[in-house]
User: What shape does this take?
Amino acid sequence: MNSLKWWGGSALIMILMVSLVVPALAQDEVDKKIGIWQNDVSVSLNMLQSSYSQNWNGGEKGSLNWTGNLDAKFEKQFTELTNWRNILKLAYGQSHKQDRDGNNQLFWEKPDKTDDIIDFESLFRWTPASGWDPYVAFTFKSLFEDLTDEYDRSITFNPISLKESAGISRPWINTEDRQLMSRLGIALIQNNRTFFLDPTGVGTETSSENSNELAVELITEYKVGALDGRVDWESKLTLTLPFIYSGKSTFEDDMDRGLLVAPLPEDIAEYSTNLDMDWENTFTANITSVIAVKLFVRWVYDKYDNTVAPAVDDTGKLLNESDVRNAIRKAGQFKQTMALGLTYKFM
Assistant: This one.
């Protein structure tokens, strides 16, 4: 079964690589601006607010929804043969709502998180004339606030995922209006996740678990602009096929299923080495120089979240059983956000 998954995932990766060659028609490439940093920084704030006095008789309730975003790209072609690109994405948003108590008095509920992203990638490529560019890359991902605990306890900057990768990349299209690049390589991933030890939700004592992965990855990035730069579409598809996961042996050998509160899937260990997909799409319409509409759509298939490493004690009892259950997602995950707000770009 493992070999079938391996060959099936590898075949899918190769098919996608071949299919990308088809649209790679002759293009007029953008001239390399050697020795000059190409910077693109965008800061945006989106907000929707309403409030009512205590004696308002319409029955409405106030709310405040806000999201802040920072998108930054710094790229430099040092020489004809070397290129360094850094991309940082930060986002955080909350929704504050009013409700009425037993005396019909308005009060503000605890805010709910609506967006949370910390994503940094540094990519260094050797760019020979052949167009096949060897690369090394480093990626850091986390959240400002982890609210996955079922008792609403929070942990800052959790989980943390570090990835070092190396392989070969290919810029299929590189013009002023369109860029298409793919890269195929080997990735070493280190995960750290903190979880609460008290399963009843009372205690706040925490413990951390580390895990490691070795995977094959294919990343395809596409960007196209239209209407003289007023409309942009950016897309990033990431396929990751882990073939080594340090937590897999814990599921297979160390965990005592007889001590579980409720049964886990018999083949949960295999979930950790399934093919993962992450497809992000961002559509931006610039109405004016400072007002923009942004639509973000993301689809993720991750049968088991490998940042949640199983932790067991000396008896084989699974200490973070609730977190492990929350990490199982047999169906794809979908996220969509759309916002109209103020955007300022630094070029």
